[in-house]
Amino acid sequence: VPVSRIVAALGGNAIVHGADTGPTAQQESVALAMTQVAELVAAGHEVVLTHGNGPQVGNLLLKNELARDVVPAVPLHWCVAQTQATIGFLIANALEPSLHRLGLDRRVAVVVTRVVVSADDSAWWTPSKPIGEFRPEAPAAPDREVWRQFGDRGWRRVVASPEPLEIVELETIRSLLEAGSVVVAGCGGGIPVVRRAYGFEGVNAVVDKDLSGALLARSLEADLFVIATDVKGAALRFGEPDEEWLGKVSGAQLREYASQGFFEQGSMAPKVEAALRFVEAGGRTAVITSLAEVVGAAEGHAGTIVDGGV
Ligand code: ADP
Ligand code: MG
Prior knowledge:
The strands form 4 sheets. Strands 3-9-2-1-12-16-17-15 form an 8-stranded mixed sheet, with helices on both faces. The protein is globular and about 55 Å long. The protein has helices at about 10-15, 25-40, 55-65, 75-100, 170-180, 210-220, 250-260, 270-280, 295-300, and strands at about 5-10, 45-50, 110, 115, 130-135, 145-150, 155-160, 165, 180-185, 190-195, 200, 225-230, 235, 245, 250, 285-290, 305. It has about 300 residues and is α/β, with parallel strands linked by helices. Bound molecules: adenosine-5'-diphosphate (ADP) and magnesium ion (MG). Magnesium ion binds near residues 11, 52 and 267.
């Protein structure tokens, strides 16, 4: 069996169920998700995992705010780094026993990952990514922060979401993979940094994890890019009576649907965009699927399968 290299991006919603973001609930959700990922590894693939951190980073921001008179608040990119470590730990701790149960003694390596963004990205002028909790009112002293109202649900902080350009730890990730580890990298879209003469500087933004997952998949020359979420794929007229789930679809056709506005901004649109970027850059196949069907998706019979046409 030829070994194929898979980059799998797991959605925050796919690994945290419901409103309970307590440690026990997170641990249980991650453990459940890892039984699926272990199957993928057991099928003989090289696997790199990346994942969202929405609920976790939201909790950290709130803690910062509530405790700022007692301990110093830390920047948003520190919060991203902290969630990479914690979620990475939960994944390693759950995935290793899952692998062991399948007779595999594989090591899991968690890489704190920086992603380069541009200081000139136009996203800095148009903050678009909502993060953290809803508030009934915008806070009185916004402190250079941007808050936006989301209908009846209330106000939410929005931050810039610049384009991911380069993964700083790419060669580290590649060597770990080639040494036989299952690699966890780029959580929460990666820690956003800009390049300086002396190295890198962290910046306060949130990189979209689907887009940085596509960059990771392209940069590692993955055979397959899997985007696992809480629905079975991308649908046309989602939620309408004539909803139509997409199965196999060409990149050109999906690009057409995307430009017609079939996919919701902030949820399905970035996944479709990520899948398209991967195949348009020469990747063979990208698939959008539910976490439960991730193994079937890797075998080519589940999810929305985007064909690069090569
Ligand atoms: P994740 O945490 O995996 O990134 P998101 O909530 O960002 O999950 O995106 C998945 C959600 O996108 C689904 O739960 C679904 O409600 C929503 N969605 C919006 N438009 C569509 C569509 N056209 N097809 C399928 N799902 C859609
Ligand atoms: Mg999402």
